[in-house]
Amino acid sequence: MATLINDPHQPREHRHPEKRNRPDTPVLRKPDWIRVKAPMGKGYAETRAIVKSKKLVTVCEEAGCPNIGECWTKKHATMMIMGEVCTRACSFCNVATGKPPAGLDADEPRRVGEAVAEMGLEHVVITSVDRDDLEDGGAMHFVHTINAIRTASPGTTIEILTPDFLRKTDWEYKVIDARPDVFNHNLETVPRLYLSIRPGARYFHSLRLLEKVKDRDPSQFTKSGLMVGLGETKEEVMQVMDDMRSAGIDFLTIGQYLQPTRKHAAVDRYVEPSEFAHYEEIARSKGFLMVSSSPLTRSSYHAGEDFARLRKAREAKLAEAKR
Ligand code: SF4
Asked: Which atom of ligand 1 approaches the CA of 125 most closely?
């Protein structure tokens, strides 16, 4: 049988055809603070069984997330909708890239809703691959998925982590109008590094997407994330924080970039835990409602607990303003 270029069970480097002929990048030894526990336990097995029985894809597996042992043991899985093949070719990401099969699985939103109900999630994070091949960039699939979760599990709060909908004029408004509790889109890195790290994206377009969410529905929480350790400077990170605050972003996540394979961008350095704490302090002083900054922070890491804190922080701020 011929080898499927984008078969997730193939060795990682075969999942990225556009990276195949790139020279290998150096691999920096991981420091002690990056080590994580191996996946195991009853909760982990149960999460895995639900994901498989509903034929769902998770970013936890596809991106090779280091937190999968901890999250799945607590039954927190982040579903990745619209398939497992991404039409972009970011140099940091381990999700398979290439030409996805045409169209979408119209039954997927229903199965996601059922999985959320079976897992008994109070808060769920839904993300997707980029689907530049679709006229709406997958906007309506997000809408259907949000609606299906509301039907199957009305008490669950919903966080979406979306693509940028670049060149998909106005389709993003459909997603905003579906009123997720949290609208997340990651800026990922500082603008200077976009060409090498996120070549298919545009920094100010991504920023504007989040600003549009706030303009249209100020009650929706907005969230964005940065990876550090890619060669950015502290001043550049601080500038991004300022840009995010200008766009009204409520919640900032900062985590260490980890290199999925030798064909991906190299880790420039491992940022020390004390520097993450320092970034958190700076970000809080700039007015974010919530900041999560640590080596293993990922957009969806501890998202449920953080959402509860986010709500409380807003309530406290509103109460303060009334005094
Ligand atoms: S941090 Fe997010 S992507 Fe990673 S395992 Fe946890 S839920 Fe999945």
From this structure: 7
Alpha carbons 98 and 61: distance in angstroms, whole number: 18
Residue owning the nearest CA to atom 1 of ligand 1: 301
Q: What local confidence, expressed as pLDDT, does residue 313 receive?
A: 95
Of 191, 299, 183, nearest to 240 (Cα)? 191
Query: 30-41: per-residue pLDDT in tens?
Result: 999 998 777 778
AA letter at 238: M
> Which residue carries 């080596």 as its tokens?
295
Alpha helices in 120-264 (DSSP H): 139-152, 172-177, 194-197, 203-216, 234-246
Ligand 1 center–CA 299 separation, angstroms = 8
Mean pLDDT confidence for 277-294: 98
- pLDDT above 50 for 163: yes
User: Within 13 Å and on the Cβ side, how many CA atoms surround 4?
Assistant: 12
- Taking the model in full, what pTM does it have? 0.93
| Confidence grade of residue 14 (pLDDT, cut at 50, 70, 90) | low
**For residues 220-244, b (16+ Cβ closer than 10 Å) or e, as one string?**
bbbbbbbbbbbbbeeebbeebbebb
Helix H or strand E encompassing 126? strand 123-128
What is the C-alpha separation between 296 and 33, in angstroms, rounded?
Answer: 9
The tens digit of pLDDT for each residue in 225-234 reads 999 999 999 9
Distance, CA of 319 to CA of 323 (rounded, Å):
7
| Ligand 1-lining residues (CB < 6 angstroms) | 59-60, 65, 67-68, 71, 76-78, 298, 300-301
Angle formed by the axes of helices 203-216 and 234-246, nearest 10°: 30
Average pLDDT, the chain: 93
